[in-house]
From TrEMBL:
This protein's record includes keyword Transmembrane helix: yes
Keywords, comma-separated and alphabetical: Membrane, Transmembrane, Transmembrane helix
Protein name (Swiss-Prot/TrEMBL): AB hydrolase-1 domain-containing protein
Listed InterPro entries: AB_hydrolase_fold
Provenance organism: Cafeteria roenbergensis (Marine flagellate)
Keyword Aminoacyl-tRNA synthetase appears in the UniProt entry: no
Protein origin, superkingdom: Eukaryota
Parts of the chain that traverse the membrane: 12-38, 44-61, 73-97, 103-126
Length: 519
């Protein structure tokens, strides 16, 4: 007997609702971002799977009575059983990681798989037991004599066999999708199970009244007369990136605080209104650290793009600043300014290049957070070699942060405001601003000074341009550090310090800090 009309109607309505939800969700998140910035691709994948699986109630294959029906029936029965089990397991993984939306979709998918599978099995077995098969003309082949007597029916059977086989192949693809999403769930759940948070948490009350939980860690001996170091970077790097520096600095008798910015590690995700701006939470972060007894002044260690928001904070709150350590810190538009100078571009041409560059990076991050990360594929592409990490025992814990969609979504989100910010042909942006209250605040700028040979070994395609770019960046970093008139510049070669993030040779940086600020 065929599936009851009510069951088929319900399956069709559920499928239509899920597919419509995917479309509306895609449109909504494109036009108006959600309250919390999450990787919306993951629930969209699950919703699409629920919709497709719901359509399977329209396909009923009798229990095996012929070769034509035997393979599709068994394969589809196995599909429903295995897929339901994987969906349930994925739901558990997402619950452990803290994604209730993914948990709900996984449970819904599992329930739909069980219901559709039960309907499929029940109708197939019932039609076989009754000996009456309304779908027989579409599923069971005929003997040669029957086929000769009824050519249209034989042709219908052949086409139906092809259709069932094609549908079975599609279900194999669906099963692969479910396996990959389950694998992504395992990768995401690995963190809370194998690598629980090392630090502590505090809740920041933002200007809108929203509350944002931040994961932070302060380690090292306390010294009431000496400021605490606070390490920061751009929106792509969190607490785990600074562990090697943390270990060396605390071994030297200093105290350092590090934290996961919103969207990274174990901190809450960004609210959409924050636009990945540190200014929306940074003062609250400093106040919270002070409330935890970490002091009222800090020496800010800023790597790369982290220097700009730190200096913006310092301009508005100079009393919190005891010093700066800038590690290869550049102004925001430096790479575009170099291209303009090297190629003799106008400002308009430079901003066209910037727009194209941002589009390419956004597309890359979209693919990573929409495909590779939700499917658990990043462990294949992200380096698994602990040699590049200065604390090998913690490498697996560090690398997990770059295997989950959350990290890549934060990086994607931090790029979006750049589209509306026009780049300037010259100047240092916020670093052109001087404040009397910050004059003579000590600054230590550690700047990479790579040799031509090292640069050309890395950039073999256009060595001369690469060397020119390194020289441009070096000059920019020195200018950035001269914001207080009390800058000390320390140059280092690739063999000395390797200022990539995470720092591969933090000992050099710590030695320079100890000479600058002896206890």
């Amino acid at each position: 007997m065929p599936a009851p009309f009510a069951v088929r109607l319900g399956g069709g309505l559920l499928a239509s609702a899920c597919l419509l939800a995917v479309v509306l969700y895609a449109v909504f998140t494109t036009v108006t971002p959600p309250l919390l910035i999450i990787d919306e691709a993951s629930p969209a994948w699950l919703a699409a799977l629920v919709g497709y699986v719901s359509l399977q109630v329209f396909i009923v294959v009798p229990a095996p009575q012929s070769f034509c029906a035997r393979l599709p029936f068994g394969a589809r029965a196995a599909f429903f059983a295995v897929s339901a089990a994987l969906s349930a397991a994925a739901g558990v993984c997402f619950a452990i990681y803290g994604r209730p939306d993914m948990t709900v979709w996984s449970v819904v998918l599992g329930i739909v798989l069980l219901l559709v599978g039960a309907t499929y099995m029940g109708c197939g077995l019932a039609s076989s037991a009754s000996g009456v098969d309304p779908d027989k003309a579409a599923t069971e082949p005929f003997h040669d004599a029957e086929a000769a007597a009824d050519p249209p029916r034989a042709s219908c059977c052949s086409l139906s066999c092809v259709g069932l086989s094609w549908n079975t192949c599609n279900l194999v693809v669906v099963l692969l999708f479910i396996i990959h999403l389950f694998n992504g769930g395992i990768v995401q759940a690995t963190g809370p199970i194998a690598f629980p948070p090392r630090g502590s948490f505090f809740d920041l009350t933002l200007s809108t009244g929203d509350v944002q939980r931040i994961h932070y860690e302060c380690v090292g001996p306390k010294n009431g007369t000496f400021p605490v170091y606070l390490a920061d970077a751009d929106g792509s790097h969190g607490l785990a990136d600074f562990w090697p520096l943390q270990r060396n600095l605390t071994a030297a008798g200093r105290r350092i605080c590090t934290y996961d910015a919103p969207g990274l590690g174990y901190s809450d995700r960004y609210y959409s209104w924050q636009h990945a701006e540190k200014s929306t939470y940074y003062r609250q972060l400093i106040d919270a650290l002070g409330a935890q007894g970490e002091g009222s002044q800090f020496i800010f260690i800023a790597w790369g793009g982290g220097a700009e928001p730190v200096y913006k904070f310092a301009l508005a709150n100079p009393t919190f600043v005891a010093g700066f350590v800038f590690l290869d810190s550049f102004s925001k538009d430096v790479l575009y300014q170099f291209e303009a100078e090297y190629n003799s571009w106008s400002k308009a041409r430079m901003n066209e290049y910037k727009s194209a560059d941002l589009n390419g990076r956004v597309l890359l991050f979209t693919m990573i957070r929409g495909l590779a990360a939700p499917w658990g594929l990043l462990p294949i592409f992200v380096s698994n070699d602990p040699k590049g990490y200065a604390w090998p025992e913690r490498f697996a814990e560090y690398s997990w942060n770059y295997h989950v969609p959350k990290t890549w979504t934060a990086q994607w989100f931090s790029l979006l405001p750049e589209f509306s910010a026009e780049a300037s042909l010259t100047g240092l942006g916020v670093f052109d601003t001087r404040l009397a209250a910050l004059q003579q605040v000590p600054v230590l700028s550690i700047v990479s000074n790579r040799s031509r040979a090292d640069t050309c070994n890395e950039w073999t395609q256009d060595c001369d341009k690469a060397v020119a770019q390194k020289e441009f960046l070096r000059a920019n970093a020195v200018s950035v550090g001269n914001v207080t008139g009390a800058e000390q510049v320390v140059y280092c070669t690739e063999s000395d310090c390797a200022l990539d993030m995470p720092l591969r040779k933090p000992g050099f940086v710590v030695d320079a800090i100890m000479r600058k600020w002896p206890l």
